[in-house]
Amino acid sequence: MSPTLAPVSRASSSETDDDRRSHRRYPIVLEVEYKVLKRHQVVERGSGFTLNISSTGVLFEANDTLRSTGAVELTLHWPFLLDGVCPLRLVTKGSVIRNHGHSKRIAVSINHYEFYIARKTLSPGSRKKSKNKPKDGH
């Protein structure tokens, strides 16, 4: 899935004045996977796509209704490559702060985030064995 910008509607000046968010939201659509955690155990998992992102939060739409609340880990498929060749994933940890019952739109507050190099999936025949022996002195 390529990243796409979500449509943004223009707010009236009164709506803008009432918006007290201190961090800018960026409307971008990325694939996301989530894990809801209770006592460090995964109690629910699923996937969906982001609607917008800021430095302190993510709004996403889940493919299925999220039944749980609390601690959550999100993995976003980052649209840019490290050094132009290596895919990245952004892993965030935070809390579900808004989950409207039957709605699949979930707001998450970010407490921590890290970028990771995404693993590439190799087909069984595509792995090459190294002809070089390790240099361990034997």
Features:
Thrombin, subunit H, 138 residues, 1 helix
Tell me about this structure.
This protein has one helix at residues 13-18, and strands at residues 4-5, 28-29, 31-38, 41-53, 57-62, 71-82, 86-99, 105-117. It is 4% helix and 51% strand. It has one domain (23-119): predicted glycosyltransferase like domains (Thrombin, subunit H), CATH 2.40.10.220. The protein is globular. The N and C termini lie far apart (47 Å). Strands 3-4-5-8-7-6 form a 6-stranded antiparallel beta barrel. The protein is mainly beta.
In short:
By secondary structure, the protein is mainly beta.
Q: Return the domain count.
A: 1
Largest sheet properties: 6 strands, antiparallel, barrel
Q: Structural class of the secondary structure composition?
A: mainly beta
Q: Please give the number of β-strands.
A: 8
Number of helices: 1
Give a topology summary.
Elements: E1 4-5, H1 13-18, E2 28-29, E3 31-38, E4 41-53, E5 57-62, E6 71-82, E7 86-99, E8 105-117
Antiparallel strand pairs: 1-2, 3-4, 3-6, 4-5, 5-8, 6-7, 7-8
